[in-house]
Design goal:
This protein has 111 residues and is an alpha+beta fold.
């Protein structure tokens, strides 16, 4: 089955970073993994940028194997009600994209 990555760019409401980060790290990622069949997930915080200024401070990166990217997105939508929501999460500014592998993973050789 093809490998996919789900990329989520998100932002809490102003002044809600602590509640947002606590929910995302201690509740949300584990619920996504258990309810949507995602293999792994990790979050990142923007610490440097060049060019266009990012409107998002946080990125979540999930890995999954599935028949298609559409199936991944459908499963995430289908299971959304099984996951706790967070009032600190600004859904209006969030975006989610599914990317499908186009070739093998390249890794640096150990020297």
């Amino acid at each position: 089955m093809p490998k996919h990555v789900v990329v989520v760019l998100s932002e809490p409401f102003e002044g809600q970073d602590d509640a947002f980060n606590d929910w995302y790290e201690n509740t949300h990622i584990d619920e996504v993994l258990s309810s949507a069949g995602i293999d792994s997930g990790q979050r990142f915080e923007l610490t440097a940028e060049e060019g266009m200024k990012s409107p998002h401070k946080y990125l979540a990166f999930y890995e999954v194997e599935a028949e298609s990217g559409e199936n991944v997105l459908a499963k995430l939508k289908e299971t959304r009600g099984e996951r706790q929501q967070c009032d600190a999460f600004n859904r209006k500014t969030a975006g989610m994209w599914v990317f499908t592998e186009t070739g093998p993973k390249h890794e640096r050789e150990n020297s």
